[in-house]
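Priority: low. Protein: Piso0_000613 protein. Input follows.
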Amino acid sequence: MTSTTKIPVILVIMGSIRVSRNCEVISDWILEVARETRHKLEFELADLRDWELPNDEHNLPSQHKYGSEYTKKWSEYIGSANGFLVVSPQYNWGYPAALKNALDHLYEEWHNKPDLLVTYGGHGGSKCNAQLREVFQGLKMKNMQTSPQISISECKYSIE
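Result:
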């Protein structure tokens, strides 16, 4: 008898769309470590820059009647994942608008799926971390207890 069990897919969602961002380097590092240590999971990078989500979806996400083709594709993509690892910078003691927009476009697609939140910033992104954990609870995600916070200090000197 052969096993036809699908390998669970975890989306690593990059929460920043800024041109100058640390999110890409941190997400790539997380992906590398995850792929080396978690062989029974498949990890896929989801860069919000690649998604042209409108600022407003006219229908309520809880109704699951999406008008935008971009939102329909986003719904299918998120709905097909088994869990999420969200990487987010802290901006002015909060989280990026693009990440909030991506989260708010959907509702049921997030339900009962585990999430791991990794934040970063000058002080580790603790304020962003606390706020996003509340948002994830509102989306009925399964918050992991572990929630790494990476401190990035400001470089004041040029190395030349």
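The two ends are 62 Å apart (CA to CA). The domain at 9-151 is CATH 3.40.50.360 (Rossmann fold).
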